[in-house]
Specification:
Largest sheet: 6 strands, mixed
Distance between the termini: 38 Å
Oligomer: single chain
Radius of gyration: 22 Å
Length: 569
């Protein structure tokens, strides 16, 4: 049985206890939501002693199921004021599983301003260590310093400058497998600020001398069923293995789904379409010996990570997701892939969520403080944040609060969280997910782009899709990566058999979905107690009244329809 580690950041006491039968049957988002609802005061200060930061492995972490070594991070969000879960790949999930650790819970806040690391030694000892030498350091600096100070073969979960300053849009970074760079982000909801409030700069996970091996109920049967699941994931991985998630550009731009100039409803010009497409992006990736098709975590067969080098052929950034490319790019009228890559590197280093940063930058440009397409101005602005200034603090508030301060009309957020890179007028299923998600505008709670049975600009079926997607996508966040979910779900019976063979008992795929449904119930209850009311389940007004110039569509699923279907079910 795996262990749960509790770290009291006030007393500096570290406790390790077996997960127990109840936690054994939960993974990822299900585990974070349960602990948060049962142990955190929803009305409390997100950066105060009552909040907890929970890190949880997936249901079958440490096994050969593809992407089962993902990590889920949960806390009350300083950005939305509600419950938040953000999950990410990287190598830390595998390292924790090899130590036999199911989850880590950081409690309370320190009485001083001491910076600490949680160190998980190769012999299994877990301890807090003073780390003033890391104070004020960026994520790349933290990785370099830790690599020199400890064995090279470590995994890192780190908190950048943004999180240390308590910025509401700060991310927690995890090193990527193979390259040991802080490129995988638990990005949304400002969880870096929660980590910063605990005084934790990094979690250093050394390679265990004696790796933990899960005791399975029926190992032979597990191996047989897991192979079926892996084959299904391989069959369903599509273009992502070849070009990464930037392949979505070729779908979203022609459909006028990709946002332009702060979601203003305009379409790209023909020249912009010609210069900004998947082929051009991949050509830039490979121009200086960068590459595609990398796995960010052990055992992943999707391999959607990309590596981008600078003009000297030196490493610049990795991951380079569609959301980042689109929101810090065309959403700000920036089409130079080199500039977009530099902004991506800045976000990983400084510790900003790229989605929130891209939308915030678009809102800032609409305020007139920076011109559209001012690439050098954007880079200079962001680089000034390292030293600290008022504008850095403004950006640290996130898109909603910055937009309110500067009097901007168009602020594309829900419950205080920025929208991902899909215009809800022309992708109404995802737009409805933005409205009803417990997390704010979170596309991972239901992406309708691939749904061939729905007309993206038409109303029919979109609300039903969005409601149905909530439990399914929460179940995904308990088990595997979003990009392995379609293949895992397609092999649903085999996956359930693998779970049964690993954990014991009789599981069906309905049980897996039920885990997600119960997760949503807990999250909605947490939000209710936190004061997030149903009347927040709607989009900003301009999406209802200002049509897309490309399609003429507005978002027309009414607040009353959402209330009836989502809150009276």
């Amino acid at each position: 049985m795996k262990n749960i580690v509790r770290v009291n950041c006030k007393t500096e006491k570290v406790m390790v206890k077996p997960e127990g039968e109840e936690f054994k049957r939960l993974g990822g988002r299900a585990l974070t939501s349960k602990i948060l609802l049962e142990e955190v005061n929803p009305a409390g200060d997100a950066l105060g002693p009552e909040n907890k930061l929970v890190i949880a492995g997936m249901l079958l972490s440490g096994t050969s199921i593809s992407t089962a070594n993902r990590l889920s991070f949960g806390a009350k969000s300083p950005l939305t004021g509600g419950i938040k879960e953000a999950n990410t790949g990287g190598d830390a999930g595998s390292y924790l599983a090899r130590h036999g650790i199911k989850g880590i819970i950081f409690e309370d806040i320190p009485v001083d301003k001491q910076i600490r690391i949680l160190r998980i030694r190769k012999d299994g000892e877990i301890l807090l260590e003073d780390a003033d030498y890391l104070a004020g350091k960026s994520n790349y600096e933290v990785v370099d310093i830790i690599s020199e100070r400890f064995d090279d073969d470590v995994s890192l979960i780190s908190n950048g400058i943004a999180g240390e300053r308590g910025y509401f849009n700060s991310a927690i970074m995890v090193t990527e497998m193979g390259i040991k760079k802080p490129c995988r982000a638990a990005g949304r909801g400002g969880l870096g600020a929660v980590m910063g409030s605990k005084g934790i700069k990094a979690i250093v996970i050394e390679k265990p001398a004696k790796p933990y091996m899960m005791e399975m109920a029926d190992k032979k049967h597990f191996m047989e069923e897991s192979k079926k699941v892996i084959r299904s994931v391989l069959d369903g991985r599509g273009v992502f293995s070849k070009v990464g998630t930037v392949g979505l550009v070729d779908a979203t731009v022609p459909m006028a789904v990709a946002p332009y100039k702060n979601f203003n409803g305009e379409a790209f010009s023909e020249e912009e379409k010609e210069n900004f497409n998947c082929q051009k992006i991949v050509e830039r990736i490979k121009k200086y010996e960068g590459s595609t098709g990398h796995a960010c975590q052990p055992g992943c067969v999707v391999k959607c990570s990309n590596i981008i080098n600078d003009e000297q052929g030196e490493f610049l950034t990795a991951g380079f997701e569609y959301e980042t490319v689109e929101l810090v790019g065309p959403n700000c009228a920036i089409f130079d892939v080199d500039v977009i890559a530099q902004i991506d590197r800045f976000c990983d280093d400084f510790g900003f969520d790229t989605i929130e940063l891209g939308v915030t930058l678009g809102v800032y440009m609409e305020s007139g403080k920076l011109s559209w397409a001012d690439e050098q101005g954007a880079l200079d602005l962001l680089n000034s944040f390292y030293e600290g200034n008022e504008i850095a603090d403004d950006f640290g508030m996130g898109a909603w609060r910055l937009g309110q301060k500067y009097g901007v009309k168009h602020i594309p957020t829900v419950k205080g969280q920025a929208m991902a890179a899909y215009d809800p007028r022309n992708l109404k299923g995802t737009g409805t997910v933005y409205a009803i998600s417990t997390m704010g505008a979170d596309h991972t709670c239901g992406a309708s782009l691939s749904r061939r049975d729905l007309v993206p600009t038409e109303k029919e079926g979109q609300l039903e899709f969005a409601v149905d997607a909530q439990a399914k996508m929460a179940a995904c966040d308990c088990n595997v990566c979003l990009f392995a979910w379609a293949g895992t779900a397609a092999a649903g019976d085999a996956y359930a058999e693998a779970v049964s063979a690993a954990l014991g008992g009789e599981w069906t795929f309905k049980d897996i979905i039920e885990m997600g449904r119960e997760c949503i119930i807990r999250e909605r209850e947490f939000n209710r107690l936190a004061g997030i009311s149903p009347d927040q389940d709607k989009l900003p007004e301009f999406f209802y009244s200002e049509p897309s110039s490309a399609t003429g569509a507005v978002y027309d699923i009414t607040f009353e329809e959402i209330q009836e279907r989502w809150h009276n079910q």
